[in-house]
Amino acid sequence: MEQFFLDTPKEGFIDITLLVGEIVLNGHVRRGICQVFVPHTTAGVTINENADPDVAADMQLALEQMVPDLPYQHVEGNSPAHLKSSLIGCSVTLPVIDHSLVLGTWQAIYFCEFDGPRRRKVWVQVIGV
To answer: What confidence tens digit (pLDDT) does each residue in 86-112 have?
Structure first.
């Protein structure tokens, strides 16, 4: 398993496809699966369109609408970030063929920051099958 770090903005979707793809390419797995895991409770990871940046902006807008400011009991003040993280999820799994990630034409892997700016960790594990 390998890891890399990101310095994130306050909130946002960061395309990490190339970083993950390099780990897969440099690994010893020709065919298998790649799991990307984000070990944070106020961040997530997802796969979505990378051709139009408005898609990520729309996702952020929709999450803001789904998770309003409420009188949350968590005193740290970042309850919306925890909820958004749970909605998006903390891992994705992708196929690997010929030492490359298998993604659709318009797909990318996005690290989703909901409580930055921070220095974040991403774990990548590639398993042969």
So the answer is: 999 999 999 999 999 999 999 999 999
Question: How big, in percent rounded to 5, are the helix, strand and coil portions of the chain?
Answer: 25, 40, 35
Closest CA to 107 of 30, 41, 55: 55
Q: State whether the Cα torsion 46-49-51-55 is positive or negative.
A: negative
Instruction: Give pLDDT < 50 ranges for the chain.
Output: none
- Tell me the residue range of the domain where 84 lies: 2-128
Q: How far is CA 111 from the centre of its chain?
A: 3
Q: Which residues contact 2 (CB under 8 A, 6 or more apart)?
A: 23, 123, 124, 125
Question: What domain count does the chain have?
Answer: 1
Amino acid (1-letter code) at residue 49: E
Q: Taking Cα atoms as reference points, which of 103, 110, 100 lies closest to residue 27?
A: 100
CATH code at position 114: 2.60.120.460
Contact 128, 42 (CB under 8 A): no
